[in-house]
Design a protein that fits this description.
It is a single chain. This protein is mainly alpha-helical and about 425 residues long. It contains 18 helices and 2 strands. It has a two-stranded antiparallel sheet. The radius of gyration is 22 Å and the shape is globular.
Length: about 425
């Protein structure tokens, strides 16, 4: 099959996706859709129906048909279908990654590791260049650092969501027993530079994600104590130094966070109102909850939050101040409001399964002969954990750019059984 021209094109389209993500939503979505068509052609030609019969894809199809149903029952069917109708392409994307890995063994993972690592290095390098330029021009307090993403303030989000996949793949493809010390030094530098630019970006949700990743990295990976100390010391030093030397970051991460969470009613501080993230986010969350209460089973329809968030029916007893978000900035709240309880429970069940897998991997890691495969598996699940933990701030759940990132680790996870068998793992998780 490797000689098939469609397979080769598909192979290289998938390799380009990490770099394409840097360009914004359009190009990666085109690559995902194009490669998905090639995957369907190949699986039909060679009758590879086992991919479509997988447990993952069956659950995905249930989720897909539920959100389609929500669209058809919404007040603006065509508008809602813009988000839901072609959502199936992301499930196909995950199957496609699984398919290509299975049919190229380690070749695709090796090249994909290079692709994804270069994309992160390119992203944080562009961020540092912008930051240094702003300092030189004395404009740093007037701008957020976004690097190659320009007007889209997602540099920190991109790095914090992709970094665990990159680290897991680097362990799997490049860690050699005779070069362990050099490898860990390089990983430490790579990780430190990623953490530092995430802090500089000022994206609070991304900073929380990268701190969570750091803690899990220190706890799980079998590093010597000095390497764990280097990582921990680097992170703490980077955070303290940047926050207190850069007034812009201090104002955003410390002062603005406090002011968003705690609103003083008057100068005498007689009453303090505590908010979820900020006043606007708090009222947005309450609005989503009201939408869910009145549409528990099918929601108001994908993409419909932005159209219904000022509807008085959902704003009961809420002082919204006349503002309205495009979505509630939380995946679970958005799904509850837009598609109802069943799809939300599917997502939460997935999150619970991820926690179970992380705990099980940690508990049984000593039983495995190939630690690199276990490190890869662990970081893939950590990637999903960072994406799905319930109190996390997220962009629009149906956003194509985010979904490329969301489904990327799933495709690799689906291929792990074959990878373990090829590398003679004695036990499966």
């Amino acid at each position: 099959m490797n000689e098939n021209i469609f397979f080769k094109i598909n192979f290289y389209l998938l390799l380009l996706i990490p770099l394409a993500i840097l360009s914004g939503p359009a190009i990666p979505d085109i690559l995902v859709s194009s490669s998905g068509i090639l995957f369907i052609i190949l699986t039909l030609k060679y009758k590879l129906y086992n991919y479509y019969k997988s447990f993952f894809f069956i659950i995905f199809l249930i989720f897909y048909f539920l959100i389609i149903l929500s669209s058809f029952l919404s007040t603006d069917i065509l508008f809602s279908l813009e988000s839901s109708l072609f959502y199936f392409r992301f499930g196909i994307f995950a199957l496609n990654i699984w398919f290509v890995i299975e049919n190229t063994n380690k070749k695709f993972l090796f090249l994909f590791t290079i692709s994804i690592t270069i994309s992160i290095i390119f992203a944080f390098t562009s961020g540092y260049m912008q930051y240094l330029s702003l300092i030189q021009d004395f404009n740093i307090n007037s701008f957020r650092v976004s690097g190659i993403f320009n007007d889209e303030l997602v540099l920190g989000s991109f790095i914090s969501r992709i970094m665990p996949i990159s680290i897991g793949l680097l362990f799997f493809c490049f860690l050699k027993n005779n070069k362990t010390k050099i490898f860990y030094y390089l990983i430490s530098i790579y990780f430190f530079l990623s953490v530092l630019i995430t802090i500089i970006s000022g994206e609070r949700a991304a900073i929380i994600n990268i701190i969570l990743l750091s803690i899990l990295l220190i706890i799980f990976i079998d590093l010597k104590l000095k390497f764990k100390f280097i990582i921990l010391f680097s992170i703490v030093t980077a955070f303290v130094t940047i926050v207190f030397l850069d007034d812009r970051i201090y104002n955003r991460l410390i002062l603005k966070t406090y002011n968003d969470l705690v609103i003083e009613e008057n100068q005498s501080n007689e009453k303090l109102d505590i908010y979820y993230i900020s006043k606007e986010h708090h009222y947005s969350a309450l609005t989503a909850i009201n939408m869910f209460k009145k549409n528990m089973f099918v929601g108001i329809g994908p993409k419909m939050f932005r159209k219904q968030c000022l509807n008085k029916e959902y704003l009961e007893n809420i002082d919204y101040g006349g503002s309205c978000f495009m979505h509630p900035h939380n995946s679970y709240l958005q799904l509850l409001a837009e598609v109802g309880i069943a799809p939300t429970m599917i997502l939460f069940s997935l999150f619970s399964f991820i926690i179970y897998k992380i705990i099980k991997i940690y508990a049984l890691k000593k039983n495995y002969t190939n630690k690199n495969i276990i490190n890869l598996e662990f970081f893939l699940y950590v990637t999903l954990f960072i994406t799905l933990w319930p109190i996390n701030q997220n962009g629009n759940f149906f956003n194509n750019w985010l979904n490329v990132i969301y489904y990327l680790p799933i495709g690799i996870i689906l291929s792990l059984k074959g990878i373990k068998e090829n590398f003679d793992e004695k036990k499966n998780i």
